[in-house]
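tool_log.txt
---
The assistant was asked to compare two proteins side by side. It first ran the structure predictor on the initial sequence, then on the second. Raw inputs and outputs are pasted verbatim so the downstream comparison step can read them without reformatting.
(1)
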Amino acid sequence: MTLADFLPKDVSLTIVMALCAIAFVSGTARGFSGFGSALIFMALASSVAAPRQVAALLLVIDFVAAAPLLPDAWRKADRKATAVIVLGALVGVPVGTYFLSVLEPVTTRWIISCFVAALLLLLLSGWRYRGKDHAWLSVGIGGLSGFCSGLAQTGGPPIVGYWLGRPIAPIVARANIVLFFGASDFFSMVSYATTGLISRESLVLSLIVGPVYAIGVAFGASLFGRASETIFRRICYGLIALAVITGLPVLDGILR
């Protein structure tokens, strides 16, 4: 048996190579800037493979990569405040997963492109929530982030913008974010598994693409410090914007 025997019928070795290249680029962005990997990966990868397969692939990779960070985050996080936001994700993730499972691939790609573009604008704006902490707002932010995660694994910007704007120590904010996404990823794993989005084929893809993503993260981390943070962020923003443009379904006849 060859590698092709374990892949989905609609995924060729050429597509696997493209996914690996995209994983390396998005991993590099994550390594040197700390963000942007999901936005880049989903916008590009969903243009070469089915959005459902791509979202499941990214979920498995992130779930494995984030697991070692959870014990330390559990000790340092404000677990009570994080639990309130997690309640929103408990509702948002299944809703996003449902839309991912029933929508046509092209429709999903348009939604992903619009989501990524909107989240990029959010990042560019430098928005941080600096108002009072309300339970209903925390649940709403968690629900929005969970919905984006369930639909396209792009729930980072809303939750990051919210937590980094709170008057708490950066180490606690980071721990809260890591802990939230640990719970959100778990909800996504359950939702994806029950809807059949996670399959043997997606796990095989994760075993192939995951190491390439890890190499990209390591490479990006090695570049950190060789240029200013401003330059790195601009490069990452540019990569996300390029991913949005090249991933648009309307350009399929030109670019693909």
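(2)
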Amino acid sequence: MLLRHGRSTSNTAHTLAGRSPGVELDDRGREQAQAIVSRLADVAIEEIVHSPLVRCEQTVEPLARARGLTPVVEHRLVEVDYGEWTGRELKVLLEEPLWKIVQQHASAAVFPGGEGLAQVQARAVAAVREHDARLAELHGRDVVWVACSHGDVIKSVLADALGAHLDGFQRIVAEPASISVVRYTSTRPYVLKMNDTGADLSGVNTPPVSGDGARAEVSGSVPGGEVRL
């Protein structure tokens, strides 16, 4: 389960938070974090993994407390390093020549003084796949686990799971506190949900393993994952 952090103070300020210190959930974001507990009430969750940034830590805290789980910090799920773009207003960034590249040719986009979106996808996909394989081996079956991260990071993982080129990842939306679900199998990933903000996610519980123990098969964005209205 790819969980985007709840609404943050940067979201409402319309700035590109990046890895800026001190960016926390706002009042609505804290409500969203608490609501995740009930949204996932009927889902068996084996582990919670999250980006090291405080807004992700705050998002998973109510769920971790309710389930008695100790979250695992995964640095490869951290927000994009936007370099010199960090903390700037989105309306100002719209005027930057790089903006069009980010929108239309994301695989070539490298933020000044920061990292490239192709690097982001590589690290995030590697992290998600490694944790998924580890937990499947540990439990001897497919399990549900939560990875709490950031908009662009989640969108890049979903693009990989969909078999889509990174250049099209801006077509994917990941709103604050949304949940997307990918099931990884021995042959290919299956995307079960995207940008789900609803209340009932019980349908993502994993099916039983097959008789041989194989994992079952199942038949306008901006940087940071914001949505311009």
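---
observation on (2): The chain has one domain: 2-196. The mean pLDDT is 91.
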